[in-house]
Design a protein that fits this description.
Blueprint lengths: L4 H101 L2
Length: 107
């Protein structure tokens, strides 16, 4: 039984194409691997920078929360003092009211 020459030619073309694809794939993998080594330090530096910034932001927010607590306590105290002063003022006004009415009628 003899082989068909066109079949043999077709197989050679397919194998040649597969070799070309394999070669291109190997080249792309090599470039990707090289790029990984080039960009890895950049990403590591960015990650370190973001981690450091996150720690700084957390520290500032913690400090801000403490300051806000102090402001809230002070504001609450000022409101309490204001309420006490209003009550004292109302008491004085009530006590002074009869004197004012009497003075108004003397004219």
């Amino acid at each position: 039984m003899s082989e068909d020459p066109t079949r043999h030619l077709f197989e050679e073309k397919v194998l040649a194409r597969l070799d070309a694809i394999d070669s291109r794939l190997a080249s792309l993998e090599k470039r990707a691997h090289k790029r990984d080594f080039e960009t890895k330090p950049i990403w590591e530096n960015l990650l370190n920078a973001f981690t450091k910034m996150q720690a700084e932001v957390d520290a500032h927010l913690t400090n801000f929360d403490r300051k806000l607590d102090v402001v809230n306590k002070e504001l609450l105290q000022v409101k309490a003092d204001h309420s006490g002063l209003e009550k004292r003022l109302e008491k004085v006004e009530v006590e002074m009211r009869p004197d004012i009415l009497v003075q108004d009628h003397q004219f």
